[in-house]
């Protein structure tokens, strides 16, 4: 019972964080100003670290909220949360090529992928050390 309510709570947190990222994307797409953008500009490589953090945290939350569910691709187990965030990141980054206020950047996509990969590794370690966590 406790784990079930914990996963519902984590799903809510993941959904709220996803909504936050959508809001940030909206602000960037409309060339709006935000304190977040000012903060990112003040930190060396802040944009790349921001991508790693945002997409990494989203992937981690998605993996845990989906109870570490996986599918197999040959011998590789892939978390459904990883796949969902990966598709979202690829779509979002590619869409920037068609928006006049944005520019497509392979380094941003690379930072997204690094964040997603790190989150997947962290989730795997958490699951491995706590085998009953996904029940």
Automatic annotation (TrEMBL):
Q: Which UniProt key words apply to this protein? A: Membrane, Transmembrane, Transmembrane helix
Query: What's the domain of life for this entry?
Result: Bacteria
Residue stretches spanning the membrane:
9-29, 49-66, 78-100
Which chain positions lie within coiled-coil regions? none
Q: What is the protein's given name?
A: VanZ family protein
């Amino acid at each position: 019972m406790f784990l079930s309510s914990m996963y519902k709570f984590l799903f809510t947190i993941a959904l709220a964080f996803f909504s936050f990222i959508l809001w940030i994307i909206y602000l960037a797409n409309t060339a709006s100003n935000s304190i977040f953008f000012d903060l990112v500009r003040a930190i060396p490589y802040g944009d790349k670290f921001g991508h790693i953090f945002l997409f990494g945290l989203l992937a981690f939350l998605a993996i845990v909220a989906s109870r570490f569910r996986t599918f197999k691709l040959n011998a590789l187990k892939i978390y459904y949360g990883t796949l969902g965030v990966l598709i979202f990141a690829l779509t979002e980054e590619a869409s920037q090529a068609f928006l006049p206020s944005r520019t497509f950047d392979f380094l941003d996509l690379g930072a997204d992928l690094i964040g997603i990969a790190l989150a997947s590794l962290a989730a795997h370690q958490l699951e491995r050390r706590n085998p009953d966590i996904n029940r």
